[in-house]
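User: Can you recover a sequence for this backbone? Please restate the input before giving your answer.

Assistant: Of course. Working from this structure:
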C-alpha cells in the first residue's frame, strides 16, 4: 500500500508541476529556437521538479528507494535541447551532493550524465516525438539496469524487485508525463491560434475588424483628450473586385487580397494600424496625422496600387485600382467618433465619381 502511495504521489507531483509550467508559458512552447532566458528558466524548473521527485522518492523496502529525477531531465532535453538539459542536470546533481557525498551520489552523477548524453543523441532522430520519447525512456531503464549489474556484480539483479519496480514506474510515469506535456503543448498552441484569429485576418495577416474597432476606440479616446494630435482614417475599397472573382475564381481573388494587404502594409507608416474590415474593404488608421498628410499617404497608397502588378498565377498578372475615403479629427469632423462614418461616406463619393481616386470632406482630392 505504501508503495502505491509513493508512486501516486510522484506521478501527481510530476503532472501538477508540468501543468503549472505550461500555464506560466502559454504564449510560447519550449523549443530549440526559444530564447536563452527561456531555456535557462526551463532548465532550472526541470531541476526543481527533479528535486521534488528526490524528496518524495519511492520506498521499495527498508533500505532501498528509487526516484524518477530522470524524467524532467528527459523532457527538458527533448523539447529544449542541450542547454536546458544541462542546467537541469547540474541543479539535480548539486542538490544530490548537498544531501550527501557518498558512493550513491557519484552513481547518480554517472547515471544522469549518461542519460543526458544519450538524450541528446535520441532527440536528433527524425521520428515522431512520442516514439522518440518512448525510446528515451527505454534507454533510461537499460542504463539503470546496467548500473545495477555493474555495482552488484550479479546478473540476477536484473530481475530484482528494485529493477522491476524502476522499469514499471519509470515507463508508466514517463508516458503519463509525455502525454500530459504533448496535451498541454497542443492546448497552448490552440490557445495562441485562437487569440491570433480573434484579432488577425487569417487571409492577409492584417488586423481584422474586431482589432480595428479596438484600435479605433483607443485612438478616439486619446484624440478626444488631446486635439493637438490630429487623428486620420483612410477607408479603402478595391474597384470592381467582383470582376476578379467572376473572371478568375474566388481562389484567385484571395491571392489578390493577400497581395493587396501586403501592399497597404508597405505603403503605410510603421505605426499605422492597417486592417481588413471585410471583403475587399480595408482601413488605415493614422495617428498624429493631419488631413494634408493623410491625403498624401492616401495618394501614395492609391498610386502604388495602380502601378502594381498582382500575380494570380506564375503566368497571369492583373492590374487593379482602389477608391479611398479620408477623414481627420478635428479638421474635417467635429468629434473623433465621426471619423469612420465620414471616411466611409467619402469612399462612396469617390466610387460614385468614377473610382480610382481619394476623397475627403466630400471634395475630390485627386482624379485620374
Amino acid at each position: 500500500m505504501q508503495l502505491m502511495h509513493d508512486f501516486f504521489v510522484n506521478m501527481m507531483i510530476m503532472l501538477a508541476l508540468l501543468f503549472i509550467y505550461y500555464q506560466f508559458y502559454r504564449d510560447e512552447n519550449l523549443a530549440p529556437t526559444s530564447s536563452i532566458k527561456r531555456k535557462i528558466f526551463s532548465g532550472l524548473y526541470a531541476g526543481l521538479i527533479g528535486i521534488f521527485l528526490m524528496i518524495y522518492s519511492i520506498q521499495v523496502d527498508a533500505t532501498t528507494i528509487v526516484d524518477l529525477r530522470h524524467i524532467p531531465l528527459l523532457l527538458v532535453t527533448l523539447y529544449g535541447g542541450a542547454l536546458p538539459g544541462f542546467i537541469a542536470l547540474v541543479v539535480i546533481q548539486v542538490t544530490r551532493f548537498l544531501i550527501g557525498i557518498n558512493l550513491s551520489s557519484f552513481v547518480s552523477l554517472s547515471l544522469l550524465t549518461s542519460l543526458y548524453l544519450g538524450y541528446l543523441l535520441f532527440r536528433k532522430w527524425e521520428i515522431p516525438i512520442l516514439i522518440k520519447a518512448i525510446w528515451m525512456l527505454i534507454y533510461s531503464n537499460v542504463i539503470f539496469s546496467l548500473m545495477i549489474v555493474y555495482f552488484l556484480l550479479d546478473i540476477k539483479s536484473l530481475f530484482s524487485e528494485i529493477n522491476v519496480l524502476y522499469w514499471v514506474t519509470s515507463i508508466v510515469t514517463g508516458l503519463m508525463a509525455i502525454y500530459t506535456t504533448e496535451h498541454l503543448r497542443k492546448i497552448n498552441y490552440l490557445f495562441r491560434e485562437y487569440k491570433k484569429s480573434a484579432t488577425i485576418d487569417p487571409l492577409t495577416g492584417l488586423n481584422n475588424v474586431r482589432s480595428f474597432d479596438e484600435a479605433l476606440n483607443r485612438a478616439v479616446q486619446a484624440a478626444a483628450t488631446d486635439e493637438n494630435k490630429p487623428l486620420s482614417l483612410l477607408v479603402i475599397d478595391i474597384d470592381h473586385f467582383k470582376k476578379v472573382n467572376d473572371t478568375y475564381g474566388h481562389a484567385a481573388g484571395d491571392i489578390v487580397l493577400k497581395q493587396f494587404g501586403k501592399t497597404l502594409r508597405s505603403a503605410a507608416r510603421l505605426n499605422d494600424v492597417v486592417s481588413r474590415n471585410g471583403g475587399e474593404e480595408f482601413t488605415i488608421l493614422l495617428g498624429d496625422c493631419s488631413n494634408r498628410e493623410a491625403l498624401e499617404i492616401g495618394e501614395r497608397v492609391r498610386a502604388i496600387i495602380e502601378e502594381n502588378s498582382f500575380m494570380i498565377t506564375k503566368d497571369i498578372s492583373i492590374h487593379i485600382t482602389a477608391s479611398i475615403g479620408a477623414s481627420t479629427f478635428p479638421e474635417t469632423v467635429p468629434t473623433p467618433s465621426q471619423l469612420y462614418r465620414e471616411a466611409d461616406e467619402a469612399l462612396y463619393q469617390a466610387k460614385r465619381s468614377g473610382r480610382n481616386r481619394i476623397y475627403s470632406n466630400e471634395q475630390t482630392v485627386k482624379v485620374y
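That completes the design. The longest helix spans residues 161-199.
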